[in-house]
């Protein structure tokens, strides 16, 4: 994939379990990275760890469910760096609740966290990408968008929002294809993040039984694919939704 030296990257949810691995990978590859996260303190700590002088890694605190707040947070990065070359929409999170018991407020929160957030961040950076005729957008969807949330029952709202991310990815890819911007998505299955350490042996076996490879996804492997899709080698790949799920969605 080569070096990302000189490339300017924005990772939403960049202080989270998956986002932080993506951030570390881009920094290791030479990119300048803005870490946008609701938890500004955690984003700042990660930025300090990776770049003590604050020149290459920049923490940005913002509530991605708020359109105006997202624009206000990203605009100084665009102005300071002169643009964003690569956007990774990694923010999100699911709530497990049976659909028949779900209230409207919970539904709206799931749409806001997992779908609206992608719109808000993408809307902030896309005009500059189109003007320069250069840009890479990688959205983190979910195998739930493809397989309906079979890995976790009661994830209907989350699956619906992530299916929206898939639709956004494909439609936007067509819209901007002739203007130098690619838009792709990953659909990861269960990942070996710290939260999985709480699985009981029975829960882990039930989970692995649904995955043909019987392997949880490794966040570093996901980050490697993100970097590939953001690289020059992927210039002719757009509108792809790539499952990283050990064959669960087959």
Q: How is this structure best described in words?
A:
This protein is of the alpha/beta class and 250 residues long. The chain has one domain (8-244): Rossmann fold (3-Layer(aba) Sandwich). 44% of the residues lie in helices and 15% in strands. The protein has 8 helices and 7 strands; from the N terminus they run E-H-E-H-E-H-E-H-E-H-H-E-H-H-E. Strands 3-2-1-4-5-6-7 form a 7-stranded parallel β-sheet, sandwiched between helices. The two termini are 28 Å apart. The model has no long low-confidence stretch (mean pLDDT 93).
Largest sheet report: 7 strands, parallel
Strand percentage: 15-25%
The share of residues in helices is: 40-55%
CATH class division: Alpha Beta
Stated plainly, the CATH topology is called Rossmann fold
Order the strands across the largest sheet as they lie in space. 3-2-1-4-5-6-7
Q: In DSSP terms, counting alpha (H) and pi (I) runs of 4 or more, how many helices?
A: 8
Second CATH tier, the architecture: 3-Layer(aba) Sandwich
Structural class: alpha/beta
């Amino acid at each position: 994939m080569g070096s990302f030296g000189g490339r300017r990257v924005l990772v939403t949810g960049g202080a989270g379990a998956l986002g932080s691995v993506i951030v570390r990978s881009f920094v290791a590859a030479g990119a300048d990275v803005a870490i946008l996260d609701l938890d500004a303190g955690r984003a700042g700590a990660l930025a300090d760890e990776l770049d003590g002088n604050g020149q290459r890694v920049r923490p940005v605190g913002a509530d991605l469910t708020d359109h105006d707040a997202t624009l206000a947070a990203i605009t100084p990065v665009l102005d300071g760096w002169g643009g964003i070359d690569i956007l990774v929409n990694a923010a999100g999170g699911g709530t497990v609740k049976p659909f028949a018991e779900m209230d409207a407020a919970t539904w709206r929160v799931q749409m806001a966290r997992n779908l609206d957030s992608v719109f808000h961040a993408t809307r902030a950076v896309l005009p500059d990408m189109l003007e320069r005729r250069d840009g890479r957008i990688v959205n983190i969807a979910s195998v739930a968008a493809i397989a309906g949330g079979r890995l976790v029952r009661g994830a209907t709202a989350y699956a619906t929002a992530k299916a929206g991310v898939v639709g956004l990815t494909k439609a936007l890819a067509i819209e901007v294809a002739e203007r130098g911007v690619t838009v792709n998505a990953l659909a990861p299955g269960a990942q070996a993040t710290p939260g999985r350490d709480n699985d009981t042996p029975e829960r882990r076996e039930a989970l692995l039984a649904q995955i043909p490879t019987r392997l949880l996804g490794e966040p570093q492997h996901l980050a490697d694919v993100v970097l590939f899709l953001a690289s020059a080698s992927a210039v002719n790949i757009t509108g792809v939704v790539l499952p990283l799920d050990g064959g669960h969605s087959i």
